[in-house]
Amino acid sequence: MVTVDDFGNYETAWCPGCGNFAIQQAVKQALVALQLEPSELLFVSGIGQAAKAPHYLNVNVFNGLHGRSLPVATGAKLANPNLTVIVESGDGCNYGEGGNHLLAAMRRNIDITLLVHNNQVYGLTKGQASPTSAEGFVTKAQPEGVPSAPFNPVEVAVAMGAGFVARSFAGMTEHLSELIQQGVTHRGFALIDALQPCVSFNKVNTLAWYKKRCSPVPPGYDPADWEAAMKVARTWGDEIPIGVIYRSDRVPFEDHFSTLGGGPLVGRETDREGLKKIMHGYT
Amino acid sequence: MKDATLNILVGGEAGQGLVTVGQLLAKCLVRSGYFIVVTQSYQSRIRGGHNTYAIRVGVDEVVAPTESVELLIALDTDTVTLHQHDLSPDGLIVVDTALGMDGEHFLSVPYNEFGKERFANVAALGVLCPLLGLDEGVAAETVDDFFGKKDKGLAAENKRALKAGVNWTATKKKSKLRLLEVPNPPQRLMMNGNEAIALGALSAGVRFFSFYPMTPSTSIGLNLAANAGKMGVVVEQAEDEIAAINMAIGASFAGAPSMVATSGGGFALMVEGVSLAAMTETPVVVVVAQRPGPATGLPTRTAQADLEFVLHAGHGEFPRAIFSPGTIEQCFHLTRKAFELAERYQGPMFVLTDQFLADSYRAVAPFELECLPPVKPAQKPAETSPYQRYAITETGISPRLLPGLTKQLVVADSDEHTEDGHLTEDLVISPRMVEKRLRKGAGVRSEVIAPDFEGEAKPDLLLVSWGSSKGAVTEAASHMESGGKTVATLHFSQVWPLMPEQFIGYLESAREVVSVEGNALGQLARLIRREAGFDIRRKVLRYDGLPLTPESIMRELSR
């Protein structure tokens, strides 16, 4: 019987009041609800304050390069599909540095869950804009305000027909935990955009700011309806829809590889006879 | 240069099927028991331009390309214009009558009489059989294997075209180019450098390969993809090279021996990943197939100009090994060695090849696969609980457990970390970790393959080389020796680490030392000076995108 204590209790490097604490709670709750053993979990993260989160859990961890978690997670999942692979990192990692990998992961529909801590700022490097910062957001690196429109991950995910697209926010731990459970359970790529405040560097998108705007999708909303999902996905501003925005039954990436039907790549024996045949093909 | 080999050059525009002719002929020759060295020269285009497929063939082992041509098979007029000056006195130019070229050295062949245009390649092979003295039966079997026998109609047409070519040529005067017959030809593999690397990886137990297509490395990925299903390997064409190396690292972290292959520009994108593999102590084999740079450079040409780049790639300090095979056999064995070292020392290991070797078909003896077991990720039981992935040991190598296979948790970090893998900024532990990683270098150094010395002790001249120019240097040395002086060769099939005690004696006891390299700076010479304190002042350098040949080396040396 897996309990919250099995996932440990670590001292963190986060600021008091950081949204990461709530997200961490939601993650632990979800893992317990799913009854996943620490050793069957692999958390992959990049670089940033959010990316430190897996270090504060008793799980297998690969804390890699900034923006490059998805490829590492993909490789690991292909090598051992028995691992439950969760990528947990920030908006800079996933929507900026790692943009190409995000698109590729959605195209692949690899069975991993991407939990993005989206605080619309770069916290660890002290306050530059992130890809989700609002146009005109003022920082020391963008003193005249951000000159670009923000990236809308939910819109892009729905547009690409990603397997499972959801959004929540750190102020609603239960809601977020429920989405994480659904994302992990979903067979295919799951994106959970978890909005959170950064108390140190984002004085605009505060807890109160999110609380005022975040509203669950209406009852009766059908996440399988792509057109409806696109409308909801493009909604941002005075209203920020949260919940499961879109879900599809696309074939997961792994299912396309005939050899993976034979189990994990890890520990496989090399077919020496097969190798001989291949070599003989050169005669 | 008079020698016992024949150089056959097939030339034409991209899209004319010159590679098909070349491949068919090369296969026939290998099956007939001959040794070959193929040099493929092509431009970065799909149609038009000028490409060539050269086959140097001999009864005894052929080790290098050559510049003179005995048999020029021209599929277009440009080929004649561009190569007729290389023709030997007894040389022959085989052209389609339709090209309207004739003369003393020409054999004008009416291909349109042999069948439809699409079978002209096979007809050409037919023409070559009597010219070279090849058995028609071997040619027919080669054609069947190449094109498949599924479509009986097509197979029959091919046979007809082959026969037509043979019969027509048989009526012409006896060819001066007939090769000596090889009685009871032993079975050999016709294989190029990239195929050998792929086979070496498979034999070493590769389970995951990711790549982004980039000439001249792409065929490694295509080869592995073709064999992936039956060999239990996953091959994925990644969205970019950064994804490729990170995927390979992820797969390897989880326990699947992994490899990536690319060329200079793609490797440039992988560099941070190299550093990640080193920091997380994750095994990964990286193949860099060199071509001229910088930047996009000459995409389809050859070079040996990335030695220093690969040596220094990846910020931070960590041990690595770089292999530089000079033959097809070395491509196979050194790729295996790279996998062994990657797993044993838990880090990135490199195989440096180039376009010339990647595309150069040779005839090699089958590998004794039964004696060559795959490399297995070492799983050592944890000595402490909780498991310390980066336990500091005397050798620097930590016992490695794989995530998910036991109850023990495996934690890896690209940040500096404590022995348990968790992030640290402690400045007392950090240098200990730097030392731990570098300590693994001692192990890598203990396994360095010494450079290969051939020739008399205390030679008048010592030619130093690395990688694919091995054969050209050996042949140049042997030719120069017939002039009276003693010429020895020293070839490095591993360019890092360098162990001066393995070779300084050879350098110091030679009257003169020359470094022969396919780059403009003499990169190996510079590295030898740095590591061994020996200054090789004279260099023979080629950086026009073409492979070193015995002639080009001797021309430079006679200046």
Give structural attributes.
heterodimer; A: 283 residues; alpha/beta; 8-stranded mixed beta sheet; globular; B: 559 residues; 6-stranded mixed beta sheet
- Kindly report the greatest chain-chain contact and the residue count on each side: A-B, 56 and 68 residues
What best-fitting shape of chain A do the alpha-carbon axes yield?
A: globular
Supply Rg of chain B.
26 Å
| pLDDT averaged residue by residue of chain B | 95
Query: Could you give the order of strands across the largest sheet of chain A?
Result: 2-1-3-4-6-5-8-7
Mean pLDDT across all amino acids of chain A: 97
Percent helix of chain B, as a range, is: 25-40%
User: End-to-end distance of chain B, in Å?
Assistant: 18 Å
- Beta-strand portion of chain B reads 15-25%
Q: Would you report the number of β strands of chain B?
A: 21
Fraction in beta strands of chain A: 15-25%
Low-confidence stretches of chain B: none
Number of helices of chain B: 17
* Radius of gyration computed on alpha carbons of chain A: 20 Å
Largest sheet of chain B: 7 strands, mixed
Secondary-structure element order of chain A, N to C: HEEHEHHEHEHEHEHEH
Shape assignment of chain B: globular
Strand order of the largest sheet of chain B: 9-8-10-11-13-12-19
Q: Which helices and strands appear, and what pairs or packs with what?
A:
The complex is a heterodimer of chains A (283) and B (559).
Chain A: H1 19-34, E1 41-45, E2 60-63, H2 69-79, E3 84-90, H3 91-97, H4 99-108, E4 113-118, H5 153-159, E5 164-169, H6 173-185, E6 190-195, H7 207-213, E7 214-216, H8 226-233, E8 240-247, H9 272-280
Parallel strand pairs in A: 1-2, 1-3, 3-4, 4-6, 5-6, 7-8
Antiparallel strand pairs in A: 5-8
Helix pairs in contact in A: 1-6, 3-4, 5-8
Chain B: E1 6-14, H1 18-31, E2 35-41, E3 48-58, E4 69-74, H2 77-83, E5 87-96, E6 106-109, H3 120-132, H4 136-147, H5 152-170, E7 189-191, H6 193-204, E8 208-211, H7 218-231, E9 234-237, H8 241-253, E10 258-262, H9 264-280, E11 284-290, H10 307-312, E12 322-323, H11 328-345, E13 348-354, H12 355-359, E14 362-364, E15 411-413, H13 429-446, E16 452-454, E17 461-466, H14 470-481, E18 487-492, E19 494-496, H15 504-509, E20 512-517, H16 523-532, E21 538-541, H17 550-557
Helix pairs in contact in B: 1-3, 1-4, 3-5, 4-5, 6-7, 6-11, 8-9, 14-17
